[in-house]
Amino acid sequence: MTPEVKAYLRYIRTSPRRMRLLVDLVRGKRVVRALDNLAVLHQKQAANLTKLLLSAIANAKHNHSYKKEDLVVKSIMVDGGPMIKRWMPKAHGRATPVRERTAHVSLVLVNMPRKEKTTTKK
C-alpha cells in the first residue's frame, strides 16, 4: 500500500455548498486533468482549489518522490467552517444577523502509475 498525500485548505470565505460544485469536478481524476479543468473555470474559488492541488503535488514530490503524472485524487471533502456573524441594518432602526459561511477542504492524493500499453504483433 502506497502512502497517501494529504493537503488542507481551511477558513475559505465561501459557502461549502458553492465549493462542493467545484470539488465534484475534481474528485477521482488524475491531478493533471483536474488542474486543466480548473484552469478553464471562471469561478473565484477555482484559484483556491488550484493552489490546494499544487500544494498537495509539492507534498508528494518532496515527501515521497512521486511524479505529478501518476497522482490521482482519491478523496476530496468540503466541510463547513465557523460562521462569521455580522449585522445588516434594516428599516425602522432594526438590524438582522448575517451569517457569512466559511469552508474547510481536505484533499487526499494517491500514487497510481499508468500501466504501459502492450501491443501484440499479428
From TrEMBL:
GO CC, alphabetical: cytosolic large ribosomal subunit
InterPro entries: Ribosomal_uL22, Ribosomal_uL22_bac/chlpt-type, Ribosomal_uL22_bac/org-type, Ribosomal_uL22_sf
Any one Pfam family match given in the protein's UniProt record, by short name: Ribosomal_L22
Keywords per UniProt: Ribonucleoprotein, Ribosomal protein, RNA-binding, rRNA-binding
Domain of life: Bacteria
GO MF terms held by the record: rRNA binding; structural constituent of ribosome
GO BP of this protein: translation
Annotated SUPFAM superfamilies: Ribosomal protein L22
Quaternary data: Part of the 50S ribosomal subunit.
Chain's role: The globular domain of the protein is located near the polypeptide exit tunnel on the outside of the subunit, while an extended beta-hairpin is found that lines the wall of the exit tunnel in the center of the 70S ribosome.
Family assignment from sequence similarity: Belongs to the universal ribosomal protein uL22 family.
NCBIfam families recorded: rplV_bact (TIGR01044)
Record-given protein name: Large ribosomal subunit protein uL22
Species annotation: Candidatus Magasanikbacteria bacterium RIFCSPHIGHO2_02_FULL_45_10
Organism lineage: Bacteria, Candidatus Magasanikiibacteriota
Gene: rplV
